[in-house]
Amino acid sequence: MSNSPESTPGVLVVEDDEHIAHVLRFMLERQQYRVEVVTDGRSAQEAIMHGPRPDLLLMDVMLPYVDGFELVRVARARAGWEDVPIVMLTAKTLEQDIVRALDAGANDYVLKPFQPNELLARVRRYVRAR
């Protein structure tokens, strides 16, 4: 999923809620992003360990099997993924959860329910900065 002049930026979405995953795919594809969606922590871990490097990782915190905090650590430990922007998208609103995600290596933390245009602006900012 690497970003090159002849390709569009790729986003790996990790979201277990089918409706939210569908909305995210729709929003991102309308903005010309290539989108891969995985729906649980185990599939996300597999995608991070063996899949192509995305231009952005957008993921939930609360996931079946492996949570988002652990997935941030996995992504940051994989060679070549150290600087992939990671935006957490979650309903977990406690300050300790936000701090935990940022300390683990996430770049940003967006609360659900999210505002679509705000989320897209954050995605653009991180993809453009690469």
UniProtKB/TrEMBL annotation:
Residues with PTM 4-aspartylphosphate: D60
GO process terms (BP): regulation of DNA-templated transcription
Keywords on record: DNA-binding, Phosphoprotein, Transcription, Transcription regulation, Two-component regulatory system
GO cellular component: cytosol; protein-DNA complex
Keyword Signal among UniProt keywords: no
Residues covered by the Response regulatory domain: 10-127
GO molecular function, one term: phosphorelay response regulator activity
Membrane-crossing segments per the record: none
PANTHER family: DNA-BINDING DUAL MASTER TRANSCRIPTIONAL REGULATOR RPAA (PTHR48111:SF21), REGULATOR OF RPOS (PTHR48111)
Identification of the protein by name: Response regulator transcription factor
Organism in which the protein naturally occurs: Noviherbaspirillum galbum
